[in-house]
Design goal:
- The protein contains twelve helices and 18 strands.
- By secondary structure, it is of the alpha+beta class.
- The protein has a five-stranded antiparallel β-sheet with strand order 5-6-7-8-11. A five-stranded mixed β-sheet has the order 12-14-13-17-18.
- A hairpin with a 5-residue loop joins strand 6 and strand 7.
- Helix 2 packs parallel to helix 3, helix 3 packs across helix 4 and helix 9 packs across helix 12.
- The longest helix is centred in the first third of the chain and has 44 residues.
């Protein structure tokens, strides 16, 4: 028969929220937000376990279990079975941080020792698994970086190569090219896409391309950015590639091969084929940047997302000797992640939610994420006192403006000027340069 003291003890534990239980258990809280992912204290992993302080819920994907009370969360983390009287009371004791009533049924010393030993063995195994995953990821990252180095290093400098494709490409897109050795050009750079029947990569195309390095703060090459060139395809002067989608394969269609007719508009709209990018990155880009001209030791830096905009702007201002010109590769690498609380509804764009209801599209806000890592966005030298950020005028304006404001906030330092320069509406700097060169 359950005493009144034990009943009250359990009721007191049921009244404790998931958030308070997490504090008692010293689980990890993120600096902001309501969702707090982390390794499961019982199952391990990296972000398999999470609790939500707004919804008062917890979940472990590795264990396939979750709930909306602190007792269940404590029981899972401490390997207790709440279906038993002893397991329930032990979990309540953890949640409340006080001893259960004297008359309560407890674990024996042998049971407790066995449970703690199980947890310790799992902890050790989880640590070993995490270390193995880290080693595997590090090996893969280094292999990818070596592939990027193997692509970039044998190529000729774009400005002096007998292969004129790179100079002609930048000349037509940006009205010129830098007198620098960062950018290179190759005659037969392979475009890999998809897998063959044995799981090996498929060479979709091989042809001329401009190749730029991604470098880290130590100036070591960590990746490369490849732009394939087709001088017969204005205004972008890049080849067009198509890829067979999963839906297309199910429909019995065959992979597109370079030289085949273009995929039809109907097949593209039905999702049977997809338009592939004519630019790719190999190795690592996270936290790195693409040098275009000048040296990173300079105190004035100028750059934005893409290489072409940086080249066009450099041409316009005459490639200043006191300036390092760069590209981030993409907007995410330029600005870094946003603080979740700064998200806002787009004033015009809408999208269908999971229930088919049209709702405003949410935009990553202008406030940088507070607990981000140093390499969550491109690096900027500490000596830089002027960082000119180039916006892309032909991208969606609201999202781009929020990202540019976030980039300025993220890279801000005392005494550092960070102007944001916008091209004409609906243009980017390379388009402006090409039109000016053509006299249009």
């Amino acid at each position: 028969m359950t005493s009144d003291a034990i009943k009250q003890f359990v009721e007191d534990a049921r009244a404790v929220s998931v958030e308070e239980t997490a504090k008692v258990m010293k689980l990890t809280f993120k600096r902001s937000g309501v969702e707090h992912p982390q390794p499961c204290p019982n199952c391990g992993g990296t972000d398999t376990f999470a609790f939500n302080t707004s919804k008062n819920k917890w979940n472990c994907r590795a264990g396939g279990i979750g709930g909306n009370d602190g007792i269940g969360m404590a029981a899972h983390c401490h390997d207790l079975d709440v279906r038993t009287r002893k397991g329930l009371l032990e979990a309540c004791e953890i949640v409340l941080g006080r001893s259960m009533p004297d008359e309560a049924e407890r674990e024996s010393e042998e049971e407790r020792a066995a449970r703690l030993e199980r947890l310790e063995q799992r902890r050790l195994q989880n640590e070993a698994d995490a270390a193995a995953r880290a080693d595997t990821q590090a090996d893969y990252r280094e292999k990818e970086r070596n592939k990027a180095r193997g692509i970039y290093r044998p190529l000729d400098d774009l400005r002096t190569s007998r292969l004129k494709h790179g100079r002609l490409y930048l000349g037509r897109r940006c009205a010129g090219y830098p007198d620098a050795t960062w950018l290179r050009v190759g005659a037969d750079v392979t475009y890999w896409h998809g897998q063959d029947e044995r799981g090996g990569p498929v060479a979709l195309y091989s042809g001329p391309a401009m190749v730029a390095p991604f470098i880290g703060p130590d100036l070591d090459l960590i990746g490369c950015h490849i732009t394939w060139i087709d001088l017969d395809r204005p205004p972008k002067y890049r080849p067009i590639f198509y890829g067979l989608t999963t839906e297309g394969a199910k429909a019995g269609l065959v992979p597109w091969v370079f030289g085949d007719p273009a995929a039809s508009a109907e097949d593209l709209s039905d999702g049977l084929y997809e338009l592939l990018p004519s630019k790719k990155m190999r190795g690592s880009k996270k936290g790195g940047l693409i040098p275009i001209a000048g040296h990173p030791d300079e105190q004035r830096w100028v750059g934005g997302e893409g290489i072409e905009n940086g080249v066009a702007f450099g041409e316009w201002e005459g490639w200043r000797a006191d300036t390092f010109y760069f590209a981030a590769g993409d907007l995410g690498n330029l600005a870094g992640p946003a603080e979740a609380s700064s998200r806002f509804a787009h004033p015009a764009l809408k999208k269908l939610d999971a229930k088919g209801v049209l709702r405003p599209a949410m935009v990553q806000g202008p406030v940088p994420k507070r607990d981000q890592d140093a390499d969550d966005a491109m690096w900027v030298g500490d000596q830089v006192d002027e960082l000119v950020l180039l916006a892309d005028g032909d991208s969606e304006r609201v999202m781009t403006a929020a990202a540019m404001a976030r980039a300025r906030a993220r890279h801000a330092r005392s005494g550092r000027l960070i102007p944001i320069v916008w091209p004409q509406t609906g243009c980017d700097f390379s388009k402006m340069a090409a039109e000016a060169e053509a006299g249009t």
